[in-house]
Structures are given as C-alpha cells and as structure tokens.
Amino acid sequence: xxxxxxxxxxxxxxxxxxxxxxxxxxxxxxxxxxxxxxxxxxxxxxxxxxxxxxxxxxxxxxxxxxxxxxxxxxxxxxxxxxxxxxxxxxxxxxxxxxxxxxxxxxxxxxxxxxxxxxxxxxxxxxxxxxxxxxxxxxxxxxxxxxxxxxxxxxxxxxxxxxxxxxxxxxxxxxxxxxxxxxxxxxxxxxxxxxxxxxxxxxxxxxxxxxxxxxxxxxxxxxxxxxxxxxxxxxxxxxxxxxxxxxxxxxxxxxxxxxxxxxxxxxxxxxxxxxxxxxxxxxxxxxxxxxxxxxxxxxxxxxxxxxxxxxxxxxxx
Length: 316
Prior knowledge:
The protein has helices spanning 35-47, 64-72, 82-91, 99-112, 123-148, 154-182, 186-193, 203-212, 221-228, 251-267, 269-280, 285-306, and strands at residues 8-13, 17-22, 27-32, 53-57, 77-80, 236-237, 240-241. The chain is globular, with a radius of gyration of 23 Å. Helix 3 packs across helix 4, helix 5 (123-148) packs antiparallel against helix 6 (154-182) and helix 5 (123-148) crosses helix 8 (203-212). The chain has 12 helices and 7 strands. The two termini are 33 Å apart. By secondary structure, the chain is α/β, with parallel strands linked by helices. The strands form 2 sheets. It has a 5-stranded mixed sheet with strand order 3-2-1-4-5. The protein has a two-stranded antiparallel ribbon with strand order 6-7.
C-alpha cells in the first residue's frame, strides 16, 4: 500500500453505459458505451489532468473495447477481478451496490493501492483463447452426453450417438484450426518446439500455454506459479498451522496442466521420478500431483526463458 497521494479514475462498465469517477476532481460522469461515448470519455479524462491509473473490471468481454482505447491513448490502465473491488468495498463498509458507487470504489481502489497497469493480449491470442474455451465447452458437452447414454432408451441412445459424433467432429475441426493458427507465427512455433522432448505436453496444452499464459519465460518460478494459481497459500494464525492450499490464478491453464501432468508422471522419466519420490515420502496422491503440476510449469518456464530445448537432465 502506498502512502503517497495517487489520482485514479474508476470506470464501471455495462453493456450500454460507462460510469466514471475521478478521485482527483471528485467528479462523476456517465457516458454512453459506444465508440462516440468512449471518445468523449477519453477527452474528459485528459481534460481532468494527470492521473496515475484508470481502473476497470473484467466484465465478461464488455470491457475490451474501452481497454484497447485507453491503451492506444497512452493512459495507464489496470483491469482487475471484480471480486477484488467487491471485497475492497466491503472492507470500507460500503454494502450498497450501484454503478455510481462501483465507479467510486474502483477509483478509491486505484488511489489506495499500487496497481500495475496492463495491456490486453493481441487479437491473435484472444482469438486462439476463444477457440480453446469453445473446445473446452464441447468436451464438457461430450462428457455429459456420454454419462446420459447408458440410462437412456435405445431410441434415445441413437440420437445421443449422433450428437456425440457431431461434437467429436467439431472438436477435431477446432484442433485443426488451432494448429493452423500457430503456423503463421514463427515465434510461437519456435517456443513450442523447445518442448518436443517433454512427454505429456500435447497440442491442446501447448495452445493454452501460448494463448492464456504469454508471461511464460519472463517471470521467475515463484511468480509464474502464483499467476497460474499453483503456489500454496499459507493459512496460519498464532499457534494454528493450517494446511496450505492453492487458490486463484488462471483456472484454464491450471486445468490444462492437470491433464498434462497426469500423462507426464507416467511417461516422462524426470516427472515420473519426481512424482514417485513424493508418494514414497508419504504424500497423498492429490498433493503429489499438484506438486507435479507446479514442477511441470517450472520446467516449461525455464525452457522458454533459456531458449534451450527440454532435456531430462535440465536443471531448473
């Protein structure tokens, strides 16, 4: 937390409206959520003078157009998880929730904490992540249909089989499209080629790493583990020592690493040895597997950072 006076602008975003509060001028201003409204908002922010950060929430995609515009205009912007601002409001004793109040809370959040401005991923990465999300949805549908099939009458089973075939064909098409999206980007292909010797990290996991974790190779092992949500969080108070648990982070990447780790601890000699040593030491299988996920992420991060292909004897 900073003790210096910071000036922040909070923007609450909805489908049709942008509610803005400036902590320096203490002014509230509504704008239409449209290209013209965003242009007017940018002009208003610049007219208010210097500021430290604009704070917006992740709003299911509604924030992307404004986020791009702010970054193009050179205005430092931080996008935060809505839960953080809601918890901050409760800590302040602000229980009411309106668009005006939310904008003011966001501005106070940015004025109180040292937020790091960030930028949206480029359009290619966003497109890839959208297709990966769609693939995940189709896989979940396939699992649901497979679970329904045994209990359904014969006639219904035939219709389920047709749907399962459609889902499988669509998943295959998306896999082919993802491979084609990676080909035109030599930097992505070169990075992924470094992992060819690492068992368990298949095409789907690789696509998730590129699309949803572009920070790989630029952070240290503790930072990357915390970003993905694989860093154990302490739970202690006085003499009480609770069990450490992983929490938060990027769930989509964590899911991909979980599936990759299931394969890696069976077929990659180094990962298999690491996992087996934990089991021999009395660790529960779930605990050992989470540790293997963290180990796998650390290895991939080190490979991307060094630019050297994965080898079983690689030190990280």
